[in-house]
Design a protein that fits this description.
With 172 residues, this protein is mainly alpha-helical. The chain is 47% helix and 5% strand.
Length: 172
């Protein structure tokens, strides 16, 4: 029996829309980005399919696929030439056959629906997590600290409580 994690479940009535969008995002990520983007796009699409009502039923799947990758690109600084992978917003939108304004609009809708922000630890590429300060900052006794500078016992407790994504290998 294959058990799908809750974060990846899709309502039956949304399964075909989900499959169509994921096929587009997977293809695009394979050709232009990487597997990390493909996996996050899968999770974003599943999350949007679970929304009531789901925004994904409104228009063409290619515009939503573009908006999903655009939103993830926004969170992970895809449009910054100093980062790898890098892709311009215009090239991203062209890859899905939509205008830059449509891509941006759908990205904004995705970000609003899921509360996405830059450096959002819920939608950060795993390879960028070590350098994402938002993943490691905690308030302890009203003092904001980088948990990576704290003793291992505190890191383990923070991880057990779901406050950090994992226990870091090396402390700062």
């Amino acid at each position: 029996m294959n058990i799908i994690p809750k974060s990846e479940k899709v309502p039956k009535q949304m399964q075909s829309v989900f499959d169509d969008i994921v096929a587009l995002t997977d293809k695009f990520c394979k050709e232009n980005l990487n597997e990390e983007y493909a996996q996050l796009a899968y999770k974003v699409t599943a999350a949007l399919c679970r929304k009531r009502p789901s925004p994904l039923i409104q228009v063409h799947t290619n515009t939503w696929a573009c908006g999903i990758i655009y939103a993830l690109g926004f969170v992970n600084f895809l449009f910054d030439k100093n980062n790898e992978p890098y892709l311009s917003a215009a090239d991203l939108c062209e890859g899905f056959g939509v205008s830059k304004s449509v891509g941006f609009t759908k990205s904004k809708a995705v970000r609003n629906a899921l509360g996405m922000t830059q450096l959002d630890i819920n939608w950060c590429l795993p390879s960028l997590m070590d350098n994402n300060p938002m993943a490691w900052m905690l308030s302890i006794n009203s003092l904001v600290v980088d948990v990576r500078t704290m003793p291992r016992e505190i890191q383990e407790l923070a991880y057990q409580k779901g406050l950090i994504p994992y226990i870091p290998e090396n402390n700062l």
